[in-house]
Every structure is written in C-alpha cells, then in structure tokens.
Design a protein that fits this description.
The chain is mainly β. Helix content is about 15%, strand content about 45%.
C-alpha cells in the first residue's frame, strides 16, 4: 500500500468514526414540554374550559397564579378548566413524550367566563395554539 493510499484510508476511517457517534440523529425528539397559548380580545377573562388532542399527553400544569382542573379522556385527549386572571400568552404547559411533534397537537377553547363569572356570549377573537 502506498503512502498516499494509507493516508486516504486513515482520513476516511477518521470521518467514518466521527459520523458514527452515539448522538441521536434528531436531537429534538424525546420527552418535552409544549405551551398552550391563549389569544383573547378581552382584558378581564377569569376562566376557560378547553380540550387538547395529540399523540400522547402525560400531564399538564399552569403557573402558580392559576388553577388547573383536568380530566384525561384517553391517552391522547385532555379536557380541563383554568381559573384565574387569564391574559394573552402561554397559559398551560403540556408534558409530552416527544416534544418535537408540537404540530400534531390541537387545542380547542370550549367556554370563557369573565372575572364576574359571566360566560362570554361569543368566542370570536379567541384562539388556543400549541407551540414548542
């Protein structure tokens, strides 16, 4: 074997060993959290009911200023209510087995009440979105 071929073989072996690492090919997959974000046209929302659907939902949580009540319908459906001062932004944190598939989750707003416990007559202008 000539010196040039031997050097080529060594460099090729180095590249192959570097490319065959133990690191996952998709570093974004695995357990993670997703945010359920509220868009509201009002500044005095005090409660909402919702439903989240997706591949699998392990649990849900909210910050300490809100109260969350949930019912797991099945492995991929969660219904619940959030009570407290609601505003635009992340309201609920979903704990899921694969955080890289946020687009596979949907959140639906069912009802909203103001801080005086009166149901909103319309959900126009409201939205729930699931983001990573």
């Amino acid at each position: 074997m000539t010196r040039a071929r031997w050097m080529f073989a060594m460099v090729a072996a180095l590249f192959v060993s570097v490319s065959c690492s133990d690191q996952p090919t998709n570093p974004g997959s695995g357990p993670g959290t997703l945010a359920v974000r509220l868009t509201t046209p009002h500044g005095d929302d005090g409660a909402m009911t919702f439903q989240v659907n997706g591949p699998s939902i392990e649990s849900a949580s909210v910050n300490g200023l809100l109260q969350l009540f949930t019912l797991r319908v099945n492995d991929s459906t969660l219904v619940g209510a959030v009570i407290g001062t609601l505003a635009n932004g992340a309201i609920i944190t979903l704990h899921v087995p694969d955080g890289s598939v946020a687009a596979a989750y949907t959140a639906t707003l069912r009802e909203v009440a103001d801080r005086e416990d009166a149901l909103r007559a319309s959900l126009a202008g409201y939205a729930l979105t699931v983001t990573r």
